[in-house]
Amino acid sequence: MIDRETFVELMSGVCAPVTVVTATSADGRPHGSTVSSFASLSLDPPLVSFALDRSSALLAHLQPGERVGVNILGAHQQELASTFARRSRGPGLKFDGVAWSVRAGLPYLPESAGWTAGRVERHVDGGDHVLLVVGVEEAEPTSTAPLVYARRVFGTHSRLAVAS
Ligand SMILES: Cc1cc2nc3c(=O)[nH]c(=O)nc-3n(C[C@H](O)[C@H](O)[C@H](O)COP(=O)(O)O)c2cc1C
């Protein structure tokens, strides 16, 4: 077995996307959390996945069959990443003071680097996390520079300087 610190240090060196995953609860309230484990899973059929901590408040609203939105954050949205990484102090409160709207029935953050929405197809056991497999129903790419996270800092992606 490797120790926890070594594993955390290894994974901090893996550059990850930054998204805000959203859901609408049965009472119509918005829910959202910052999620970096978002990844493409399958092209045919189109599937994406992400992992949520079993203690995540959002997880309760993303059971198999429920709808989910993914706002892929842009390099200018670091503050939103921090806002949605805070523990929920009550239903919908993370959205206070945030510019958002409803798109396809889901909380949507305008001016993000990308948007996708779909339905949770299944949960897969992932130790202290749950892997959610999502069937993609809607996708909007943009050319906005993405926000990325590595070594505990936010950044963005850019082309390497070409060696002369
Ligand atoms: C950059 C970044 C990426 C994160 N990625 C994940 C993730 O993939 N899965 C997860 O469960 N939590 C992730 N978190 C932590 C959650 O955003 C945080 O625990 C949040 O408070 C969960 O809120 P909730 O309980 O309302 O779901 C991430 C936090 C940051 C800052």
From TrEMBL:
Alphabetical keyword list: Oxidoreductase
Protein's UniProt keywords contain Nucleus: no
Pfam family, one: Flavin_Reduct
Residue span(s) of domain Flavin reductase like: 11-156
Keyword Oxidoreductase: yes
Family: Belongs to the non-flavoprotein flavin reductase family.
Name under which the protein is recorded: Flavin reductase family protein
Organism this protein belongs to: Catenulispora pinistramenti
